[in-house]
Model the fold of this input.
Amino acid sequence: MAARIVTLPGDGIGPEIMAPTLDLLARLAPDLEFEEHVFGGASIDAHGVALASEVLTACGEADAVLLAAVGGPKWDSTDPDAPRPEQGLLGLRKGLGLFANLRPVRPLPALYDASPLRRERIEGTDLLVVRELTGGIYFGAKGREDDRAFDECAYTVAEIERIARVAFDTAEKRVSSVDKANVLETSRLWREVVTGLHARDFPEIELEHVLVDNAAMQLISNPRDFEVILTENMFGDILSDEAAMLTGSIGLLPSASLGNPTGPGLFEPVHGSAPDIAGTGVANPLAMFLSAALMLRHGLGRPEPAAALESAVDRALDGGLRTPDLGGDATTAQATEAVLNQLDPQGA
Done:
């Protein structure tokens, strides 16, 4: 039976990078069926909320969800009661139980010189950030009282253990667990639970504990020393964007958000909606393409077409493809054509 994919183009450049991604998927997996829904700011305009209940239901019934981008200045507000596009993301993660966010970071040799770091510093980097996605300060109680505001950060043993298990299952040799255990009680529990799980179930994997400020420095000074970075929600949000810049552009990084093995995963590029370039035709679609590859591999169990798409992106970059964020002038359409030209139909 054909797999059904819910697509959420979202805002800004989202529709511009979603369309060519579906063209690529049609070439690689022609049996896929797609169902598009409004989401984020577009949904606020249409329905008054960033995630309509019927859209959440459709996502829950799909085999996978492919998201492009959300947000933009049109919906920015300091009013705590105003709907925001990002609320759709949080609602989707919570509603689908997507507690594990995977962000691979692998600078490509063809783009070493595009990185803000020296070639010798990033050469050989191949790391994965495993971020807890449905707990912590983003989902804790929050509010304002007179001249005071508060955001609660809380974690349970079960929440920590299930994300740590994902990290250890993914690692071949080493997990770097990032926390702030010298200050935060939640981090002290985090370290305790991760240490216990490691000793009990994963003694063959090396475990190191790294304070988040030190981890931020080490990502710049010695990125290839990391294999799997395990961390909580807010720290992971910040560190994964920092790690993305090792590649030279945040426009190259995909992500997968996973939860219940029988439920759908969410696959999206880590960049934002880039409203400043929306409609100009120069958005870099490569992170969207690579997110589709993660969907094929982790969401649909189709590693062969996933590898074919990733290889086509690599070869296109080796052949000189450069969008404006990479120092070139290739348009979205030209980038798409370059990848399509590299696709091997036999690889699907």
The chain has a mean pLDDT of 93. Residues 1-104+249-348 form a domain with the Isopropylmalate Dehydrogenase fold (CATH 3.40.718.10). The CA atoms of residues 312 and 341 lie 8 Å apart. The chain is about 40% helix and 20% strand.
